[in-house]
Every structure is written in structure tokens, then in C-alpha cells.
């Protein structure tokens, strides 16, 4: 019988800066992304089974994801920020119904829609996490991603020219899956 060991086989620690985030709808985000979270999960619908002795908790039947939060550098044309802004306007169409129709024109989504049957208000996203030797360790695939908030942009003459401006966007999604079967390159 094999002896049990408490020593992990991989003692390398995860490094916060070793990642790459890509969106089907936001290709420029890959180069400007500064921070991203791997959303946590929680359970809803849990109940308490009452008894004359001790009440017993019963697990719930719904899983709730935290939003995907992304902080990104702003280029001088505000391209990523503007695309997310237009995406939110297209989904919510605050002025007219044509704003929703314009969703399919953004980032050449018409071809993608025809190939995959994707709906114009959604995008898929992929978070790749790398080892300390810059080899991909695992991917997190997000399905049916859409923006729910976009930060404001604050211009300030008191800041130096070296100050790099950032924006933050939050996204909801249907599901994410973790794929650890990546072959190192």
C-alpha cells in the first residue's frame, strides 16, 4: 500500500501577473487588460431541516456567479471603453431600436453569428493562466458574456503625463469551465 504524503507534487505558487484575457468581441482588450478576477461562486436556495434536536442545514440547488471584473488601460482613442459603452447601449437601446440592430455590425459579428449562431448581445471570453515559466497551465472559458457596468473616466490636469488611465468593466455570464488539459509549448 502506498504511503500517504502531505507534500504537494507542484510547489510552485500562482503568480498574479501571469494571465491573458481575450474576448471574441473585444480583441484589443487582450493587450490592455491589467486586472481580471476569476469569479467566485455561492450557493442559493439552502434550507434548514427543522427537528426536535438540532436543525440541520440542507444544501441549496442554485449556483450564483460573482461578476467578471476587468480593469484595462485606456488608449488615447478610448477604443476598449467605447466598444463596451456601445455594447451596453446596444443591449439596452436607450434611444431607439436601431441601437440593438447595430450590435451585429460591431467587430464583424455578422460572420461569427452565421458560423456559430451566436446572439449579438453576447461574447465568449477566455482567461489563460500561465506558469512561472510562462507556459499555459489552464484556461477558463466564459460563455455568453455581456457587460453590466462600465466605469467613468476622470480627466485631471493635476496628474502628470506619466499617469496611465484605466477603466473597469463588469460582466455577467452564463457559465465558466476550467480546462487543465493544456499542453505546454
Describe, in plain words, how this protein is organized in 3D.
This protein is α+β, with helices and mostly antiparallel strands and 185 residues long. It has a single domain (19-45, 60-179), classed as Pnp Oxidase, Chain A (Roll), CATH 2.30.110. 16% of the residues lie in helices and 35% in strands. The protein is built from four helices and eleven strands; from the N terminus they run E-H-E-E-E-E-E-E-H-H-H-E-E-E-E. The strands form three sheets. Strands 1, 2, 7, 8, 9, 10 and 11 form a seven-stranded antiparallel sheet that branches. It has a two-stranded antiparallel sheet with strand order 3-6. Strands 4-5 form a two-stranded antiparallel sheet. Strand 4 (47-49) and strand 5 (56-58) form a beta hairpin. The longest helix is centred in the middle third of the chain and has 14 residues, at 79-92. The protein starts with 18 loop residues before the first strand and ends in a 6-residue tail after the last strand. The model has no long low-confidence stretch (mean pLDDT 86).
Q: TL;DR?
A:
The chain is α+β, with helices and mostly antiparallel strands and 185 residues long. The protein is built from four helices and eleven strands; from the N terminus they run βαββββββαααββββ. Helix content is 16%, strand content 35%.
Amino acid at each position: 500500500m502506498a504511503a500517504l504524503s502531505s507534500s504537494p507534487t507542484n510547489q510552485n505558487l500562482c503568480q498574479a501577473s501571469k494571465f491573458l484575457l481575450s474576448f471574441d468581441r473585444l480583441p484589443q482588450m487582450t493587450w490592455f487588460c491589467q486586472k481580471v478576477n476569476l469569479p467566485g461562486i455561492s450557493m442559493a436556495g439552502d434550507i434548514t431541516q427543522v427537528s426536535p434536536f438540532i436543525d440541520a442545514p440542507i444544501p441549496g440547488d442554485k449556483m450564483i456567479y460573482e461578476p467578471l471584473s476587468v480593469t484595462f488601460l485606456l488608449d488615447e482613442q478610448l477604443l476598449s471603453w467605447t466598444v463596451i459603452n456601445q455594447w451596453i447601449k446596444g443591449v439596452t437601446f436607450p434611444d431607439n431600436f436601431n441601437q440593438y440592430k447595430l450590435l451585429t455590425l460591431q467587430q464583424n459579428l455578422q460572420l461569427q453569428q452565421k458560423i456559430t449562431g451566436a446572439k449579438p448581445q453576447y461574447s465568449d471570453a477566455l482567461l489563460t493562466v500561465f506558469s512561472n515559466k510562462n507556459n499555459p497551465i489552464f484556461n477558463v472559458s466564459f460563455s455568453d458574456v455581456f457587460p453590466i457596468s462600465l466605469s467613468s473616466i476622470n480627466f485631471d490636469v493635476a496628474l502628470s503625463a506619466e499617469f496611465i488611465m484605466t477603466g473597469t468593466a463588469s460582466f455577467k455570464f452564463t457559465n465558466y469551465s476550467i480546462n487543465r488539459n493544456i499542453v505546454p509549448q
